Amino acid sequence: MNDPDYLAGQIGIFWFVRWKADLRLLAASCPVSDGEPYGDMMTYGTGHYTTWDRWRRSRTARLERVIANAFEYEEWPRGRVSFDMIRNGPLLLCDSQIMKSDLIEIVLSRFNVSSHKLTLDKDAHYKSTEDIEAV
Questions:
Q1: Which of 41, 43, 55, 116 lies 20 to 30 A from 8 at CA?
Q2: pTM of this prediction?
Q3: pLDDT (0 to 100) of residue 124
Q4: Helices within 58-121 (DSSP H only)
Q5: What gap in Å lies between CA 22 and CA 34, rounded to an integer?
Q6: 3-state DSSP helix/strand/coil % of the chain, to nearest 5
């Protein structure tokens, strides 16, 4: 885990949510160095369900609180950015709806991650019911 370009980045979880006709990225993250080891990965320790539930009660994350109280956590396309310690690069797993270059770029920008050494894959576990293309 010695790639200085990636170590400046973040790991975490995210959702794309359509709210008031705008597509919004909601995310929770931490520096790679603050992550939790999970096998060969360094990952964000808090999962999607726990984060969504915490946002429901938040007094500071206003937009997240409103959205989390309007929907269930699995309704919107979601994903995770982790760090593969064997490959020494980021891993992005996400709902198939997110597998579009413009959305991937939004995620990489939010997590301050370059596409260098990026592994990108769909994850059947991240299957949403809402369509982010619907207006």
A1: 55
A2: 0.91
A3: 86
A4: 62-70, 101-110
A5: 32
A6: 30, 30, 40
